[in-house]
Amino acid sequence: HHLNIVEGKMQYLYDEQGKRYLDCFGGIVTVSCGHCHPDIVKAVQEQTKLLQHTTTIYLHHAIVEFAEALASKMPGNLKVVYFVNSGTEANELAMLMARLYSGNLGMVALRNGYHGGSAGTIGLTGLQTWKYPIPQGEIHHVMNPDPYRGAFGSDAAAYAREVEEHINFGSSGRVGGFIAETFQGVGGTVELAPGYLKSVYDTVRKAGGVCIADEVQSGFGRTGSNYWGFQTQDVIPDIVTMAKGIGNGLPLGAVVTTPEIASVMAQKIQFNTFGGNPVCSAGGLAVLKVLDKEKRQAHCADIGAHLVERLKSLQQKHEIIGDVRGRGLMLGVELVTDRTEKTPAKAETAVLFEKLKDLGVLVGKGGLHGNVFRIKPPMCFSKDDADFLVDAMDYAMSGF
Ligand code: PMP
């Protein structure tokens, strides 16, 4: 049966019967600080009482303060911020900028990536599950640098060569841009082979393209080691897109780019009715402050290390666990019926998912075959919560 969740408090959710669930998925990596975090509720309430909305043709201090705070988190010349209402809108705008700036239409994206479901971004998405059959433009889906399932294992150089060949043999030799999540979310928490983005960014820029990092899931310190996912690959993108965790549940997205790239937007009018409205901006600014004040990046590193250690020992015990991966509180547990063949344990994952729910633990499911547990809780997740999750998984898997 379907859950009917009526209340949330930090990392816990409650159904209409009052049953408590440990939220290990945070509304799809969206509730970054915790459900109904008091500081964010307060910021939203205060702004709501004062002024909810006018139009972005008027100035408002909330949008400026939020944009400045966000830009201050960015390296290099990534200083211009656009606010939208979702990840899809952010990627749509990023793709538009890449095409205008480069003068090329073709886009390069990864197989197994997810970037949205609108007419434009559905083409970037590289999972058939989400791709309605409509014309999707010139999109080149290159091999996924997936260390567990990818054809070249962790050999980043081999995957990067394939991108170069794809551009040379499958396009005019020029491309508009390249987009990748730095940790694939919907695709099942896949951390790209180390060194991959550095070589591919070089290749794409040589072909005239703009490099876009989709940080919708991996940003804001969730990986523990870095504030942004792209920093784990030691690159600076030309455009960064964000959504989900940026708003802790508010409908909010952002695109950050360089003044040079942003200047292409001046040829027409770029307008978004609700993008950067006072309420979402006040909430978004409160999110950034909470993450700093509560030192959430360091916390994600601590709890994530503990969780990975416990999940790896669970893997020793249960044959069904084929892979444990990720960083910080951006983790994936891939289930297989045969470790050598890596046969996706699709049906088993669905059964375990329900068992965990009955035990009061909500995880996410991902990957093309739905055989990966995605563990991406609100960042206030504690060590006790981590132990409870692993104990529940152990108990549920013991029946197999
Ligand atoms: N990019 C990534 C990496 C995502 O995970 C998602 C949503 N699952 C999107 C973009 C699209 O975001 P939205 O659903 O807010 O449009």
List descriptors.
36% helix; alpha/beta; Aspartate Aminotransferase, domain 2; single chain; 19% strand; binds 4'-deoxy-4'-aminopyridoxal-5'-phosphate; 2 domains; 400 residues; Aminotrans_3_PPA_site; Aspartate Aminotransferase, domain 1; 18 strands
Account of the 3D structure:
With 400 residues, the chain is α/β, with parallel strands linked by helices. It folds into two domains: 5-30 and 295-397, Alpha-Beta Complex (Aspartate Aminotransferase, domain 1); 40-293, 3-Layer(aba) Sandwich (Aspartate Aminotransferase, domain 2), CATH 3.40.640. The protein contains twelve helices and 18 strands. The protein has helices at residues 26-29, 38-50, 61-71, 87-102, 121-124, 156-170, 196-206, 259-262, 278-293, 296-317, 346-358, 383-397; strands at 5-9, 12-15, 20-23, 80-84, 107-110, 139-142, 177-181, 183-184, 190-191, 210-214, 239-242, 253-257, 321-327, 330-338, 343-344, 361-362, 364-366, 372-375. Strands 4-12-11-10-7-5-6 form a seven-stranded mixed beta sheet, with helices on both faces. The model has no long low-confidence stretch (mean pLDDT 97). It binds 4'-deoxy-4'-aminopyridoxal-5'-phosphate. Residues 28, 86-88, 91, 114-116, 181, 185-186, 214, 216-217, 243 line the site of 4'-deoxy-4'-aminopyridoxal-5'-phosphate. 4'-deoxy-4'-aminopyridoxal-5'-phosphate is lined by residues 28, 86-88, 91, 114-116, 181, 185-186, 214, 216-217, 243. Its cofactor is pyridoxal 5'-phosphate. Belongs to the class-III pyridoxal-phosphate-dependent aminotransferase family.
